[in-house]
Design brief:
Layout (H helix, E strand, L loop, with lengths): L5 H23 L43 E7 L8 H9 L43 H8 L2 E2 L5 E4 L3 E4 L5 H12 L7 E6 L2 E7 L5 E5 L6 H7 L12 E7 L2 E7 L18 E5 L3 H34 L1
Parallel strand pairs: 6-10
Antiparallel strand pairs: 1-2, 1-5, 3-4, 6-7, 8-9, 8-10
Helix pairs in contact: 1-6
């Protein structure tokens, strides 16, 4: 068995530490596919699945959104009636202007004048993009954001000639039918479209674009919310996403595992208005950003020092 001298031992130890400082980040900072791929089922990311075949099905816990007190809605009425007799349009123009939506930013970008809508209100009206040629928002989206009606504390909205209509507790199609029936006799073959304007959610943590977002589609899933925020970062813990939901004066805490395919029939697969989504980091993030760089630097310094000591000892002998 070969016997190593002290300088040789120091050199071997120095080489090992330097090699460790180089290789450690590759082993500890990498995130495996099983922590990245959404909706997995029993290791199917490692197998070849049959194509064009329904393998499983899930019952979605989808509930139509019902309007609530203090909701903000857009009301549009189309008819063959002459424009000068369209009192709903005049009412909307004169009294329907709201300002409370303008305070929100979409993905940390000012909606007006910064190219807006990078991760933007894409969830309604046929998935419109809504950017104008000058990089700002199109007139359609600006109109939607700035004009609307707030239901009062009783969930009612007052219309000229018609009176007060209670919309709270109705789905959007039901509310459209109620308004349409109320307008019969005032308009010839009226068509009514109602859209919710204040379905907001906030997403924070390991996402590419944190912020408060607005959806024109109240049937929003957790994946829709993630997509609007530019997807999660590589170091996001997709198995432990927290939702803080305010209901009846309480804050309810819900956890979702987006890696598990069975989440498709979870009760909370669909979000609710004003949900707060918090995406925590994996431990690999701390290791990659803080622990490993410092440890690698320390190993490199110690290895260099040991090499220098070994060289000095060899030269003094």
């Amino acid at each position: 068995m070969k016997i190593y001298t002290l300088p040789e031992k120091l050199k071997n130890l120095a080489g090992f530490l330097i090699l460790l400082s180089v290789l450690a980040p590759w082993f500890y900072a990498c995130v495996p596919n099983k922590r990245l791929v959404y909706l997995q089922h029993q290791g199917d990311i490692k197998t070849i699945n049959p194509v064009d075949t329904v393998l499983r099905s899930y019952n979605l816990k989808r509930e139509p959104y019902t309007l609530k007190a203090e909701d903000i809605i857009s009301l549009r009425v189309a008819s063959v009636t002459e424009t000068e007799f369209n009192f709903i349009r005049r009412y909307e123009t004169e009294l329907g202007i709201i300002r409370k939506l303008n305070q929100y930013k979409q993905g940390e970008q000012d909606l007006v004048g910064r190219g807006g809508l990078n991760n933007q209100m894409m969830m309604g009206g046929g998935g419109m993009r809504g950017q104008s040629d000058d990089g700002g928002l199109s007139s359609i989206i600006l109109d939607r954001m700035n004009s609307g009606f707030v239901l009062d504390l009783k969930g009612e909205m007052e219309l000229p000639e018609i009176g007060r209509l209670k919309l709270a507790g109705l789905t959007i199609p039901e509310a459209e039918a109620l308004v349409k029936n109320s307008l019969t006799g005032y308009y010839e073959t009226p068509m009514v479209r109602i859209q919710l304007l204040n379905f907001h959610y906030t997403i924070l943590g390991e996402v590419n674009n944190e912020g408060r977002y607005t959806s024109f589609d109240p049937e929003l899933t957790i994946f829709d919310a993630i997509a609007l925020a530019g997807n999660l970062s590589e170091f996001a813990d997709r198995s432990n996403i927290k939702i803080v939901r305010r209901e009846g004066g309480e804050a309810k805490i819900i956890y979702l595992n987006t890696l598990d395919e069975r989440m498709l029939n979870a009760e909370n697969f669909y979000l609710k208005r004003d949900d707060l989504i918090i995406v925590p980091p994996l431990q690999a993030r701390t290791a990659s950003m803080y622990t490993l760089p410092r440890t690698s630097s320390l190993f490199g310094i110690v290895g260099g020092a040991l090499s220098l000591i070994a060289i000095i000892i060899s030269l003094t002998r």
